[in-house]
Amino acid sequence: MKYFKKLVGKNVYLSPMNVEDAEIYTKWLNDFDVTDGVGNSTMILSVEYERDWIIKNSNQYQFAIVRLDNDKLIGNCSIHAINQIRQCAEVGLFIGDEENRNKGYGEEVLNLLLYYGFNYLNLNNIMLRVFSFNERAINCYKKVGFKEMGRRRQSYYLRGNYYDEVYMDILREEYNK
């Protein structure tokens, strides 16, 4: 088996990333439908680069998102920018193929990351960043309990337009309610 069920939800589980998936990640990370939302559409990534990145970051909190019913890789997520002294971190995720979006997987992934971050990493504040045009993601984050805490106005240029970078966070006590 190439995936390991580290964090298991109802429909998906989070597994350590597998270097054998570098080609799939490279496909997604060169797809504007994915990269416009995560803010790295200007990057051009090769399979070799992605393979090296997975190897170098394998001891970080980077996870493959895998469907529980068929063990199919559908995306990636992470807890990063961890500051143990201040007990805060950031999370991020993407779902690769459109066929797996709008099915509640993102919400489930966030709940798994929050559970892990608050209960195992002893975090108190977890934040994320999202661009103002990405209403689908913003609605998902609000559903999980994230609240907007600020904006960096017109800081993201994409296809002729400027968008705000929206900062959202959730506290352990809010998550536990």
TrEMBL record:
Keywords: Transferase. Residues 12-173 form the N-acetyltransferase domain. The keyword Kinase does not apply. GO terms for molecular function: acyltransferase activity, transferring groups other than amino-acyl groups. InterPro entries: Acyl_CoA_acyltransferase, GNAT_dom. It comes from the Bacteria. The keyword Transferase applies. This is GNAT family N-acetyltransferase.
